[in-house]
Amino acid sequence: MATGHYARRIVGEDGRARLARARDEDKDQTYFLYGLRADQLEHARFPLGELTKPEVRAVARSLGLATADKPESQEICFVPGGDYRDALRERAGWRPTPGPGVDADGTSVGEHSGSAGYTVGQRKGLGVALGEPRYVSRIDPLSNTIQLGRREDLETRTFTIERASFVAPDVPASPFRAEVRIRHRAPTVPATVRPLGERRWAVETDMPVWAAAPGQAAVLYDGDEVLGGGRIEHPLAIGSTTNERELVASSS
């Protein structure tokens, strides 16, 4: 199967396929492909992986394709209009239900218009004025509560990932060093990764990462090669106690 993802499939000296970043780093899409199995990668091809976006446009132009000069899209490609809230309403029947917004210490700071309409790290559209910027730091869909925090409250160096999978032919010996990316286009950060069992891994980064959102993918790299990744389960704020760290590591 050939896809239009900006990624590369490389074959090592052992004859096994590996997933690697695209030559055009600005367009690289390997972050979205970490969940491929090794056997699926064997049958995948990425013809755009060795090309830059201008080169791709030149090829399309030479073939007379209407998309050759199509403007760049910065929104969700499968959501018309780019607003995922509209997709939630139309496809899932979501109806916004107002709920409490609280500060980091639990103080009520207002009311939000529905927890599914917010993301961790969001600043705009919060409808509060507290003298300094606040960001969504935690979302509790069960109680329909949004917690806000200062920018530094969203920094972490420790988090766990669940439902982890590896596209690399061999899982590295544990613990192992890797670079981790917690969102598309975010810079990779050096980290130590260790197993917790049940497809769960603990990630400790050398420097803080910002707004590690539960449910968001964390993808592990070894240079250009994608090792694998999983879904962020528990981010831990900088300054957390040893007991809190042990609780996160042992939670299921």
Concise overview:
Helices cover 13% and strands 35% of the residues. The protein is mostly beta strands and 252 residues long.
Largest beta sheet, briefly? 6 strands, antiparallel, barrel
- The 3D shape can be described as globular
| Broad CATH class of the largest domain | Mainly Beta
Overall mean pLDDT stands at: 89
- Kindly give the count of domains: 3
The strand count comes to: 12
CATH superfamily of the largest domain, called what?
A: Translation factors
CATH architecture of the largest domain: Beta Barrel
Instruction: Write the element-wise H/E pattern from the N-terminal end onward.
Output: EEHHHEEEEEEEEEEH
CATH topology descriptor of the largest domain: Elongation Factor Tu (Ef-tu), domain 3
- Poorly predicted ranges (pLDDT <50, ≥5 residues)? none
